[in-house]
Amino acid sequence: MKVKELRGLSLDELNQKTRVFKKELFNLNYQRKMGNVEKPARFRMIKRDIARVATILRERELEEKTKLKRE
Question: What is the DSSP string of 22-45?
Answer without folding.
Answer: HHHHHHHHHHHHHT--S-TTHHHH
